[in-house]
Amino acid sequence: MSRILFTRRSFSALAAACVAAPALRAQPKVEKAKVSIAVGGKAAFYYLPLTISEQLGYFKAEGLDVEISDFAGGSRALQAVVGGSADIVSGAYEHTINLQSKNQMFQAFVLQGRAPQIAMGVSTKAMPGYKSVPELRGKKIGVSAPGSSTNMVANLVLSRAGVKASEVSYIGVGTSAGALAALRSGQIDAMSNTDPVMTMLEQKGEVRIISDTRTLKGTNDVFGGPMPAACLYAPLEFVQKHPNTCQALTNAIVHGLKWLQTAGPSDIIKTVPETYLLGDRALYLASFNKVREAIALDGLLPEEGARTALKALASFEPSVKPDKIDLGKTYTNEFARRAKDRFKA
What structural domains does the chain harbor? Predict the structure, then answer.
């Protein structure tokens, strides 16, 4: 009798192992376990999914040892990858289009933000009587870093009012305490930046917002359609050579996006580093509530969003010719689809 019982138990254990086996096989060994990610302004809500996935150990759970290097803005992070000191950029999707126009092939493979979350505001101290965009001619405008997505949004706002980028001075101020200090000390007259910085300045009456993409509606008003924002992107060659690594990175980010869908403000406060709060917990949470809907849900980049980004760039960037850009090569949803199914995002 005991022998039969033992056999049944063995059979049950074997059956359970067989059921579990496909799940294990579904996660093949990563080609590159140690991965370096360059990000431009990690403390911004723009990159919150990256921070959440890091802080909650989701990269480690996928068998990755991820090192994240923080730079002043997205353009600086991109330079790190182009220069070979990092593997992957956590940055704005539109850089992949810009790069392709210069014959450099990069591909986005998981979306973190479905709206740019960038607001442009004029200093109420430097320009108290401000009425319209042309008044910014000859002024100093703060951006996270020249060439970054904050710079791109400023270019778009100016070009629509007939102001050329060459008619203003752009100054890199980062995305945290340095940006606040630059505006408050009068080093700049206006600023295009992300949250929590812009909400902090707005709530204290230090800036007057003139363009806002922190909500889906605001993004649609500015760009005329959905505008994909932060994503993980890398040289096309890297993506092709390291599909399992890209899948693992995507899994970690989508896991973070899934967590963010139900996380409350107190969960966010407990998870992000204290320095991200910029000394004002209440304003940090007010900023989070403002940009929450801009966070991606499942890591998928919408085709319509890619077209919006191309149209926006081509409107003020002469080197970007829409008929010469192959949008299909600038992003892939292959990894995000698998991660979405796995995490039911």
Answer: 34-116+227-343 (3.40.190.10), 118-223 (3.40.190.10)
